[in-house]
Fold this sequence. Notes:
It is a single chain. Helix content is 8%, strand content 41%. By secondary structure, it is mainly β. It has one domain (8-62). The longest helix is centred in the C-terminal third of the chain and has 6 residues, at 65-70. The chain is globular and about 30 Å long.
Amino acid sequence: MNVHVGAAVKRRVRPSEHGVVTEVGEQNVTVNWHLKQATSLGPAGMSTGKIYVAPADLLPDSPCPHCKQLS
């Protein structure tokens, strides 16, 4: 996937999380994540913070209202 700052993404392995790419580096990207649904990490819509992720682990996603505010 070709990622860029402001892109809405989701993880291949955790479809309940999605977020917005905030930084793009050579080996990984920084994503500001939040939860689509309640999980053991917290309630739906809660931010899980910025996490470094390999671009190969990401899929494109349609932005939700929360993600549109982040970009």
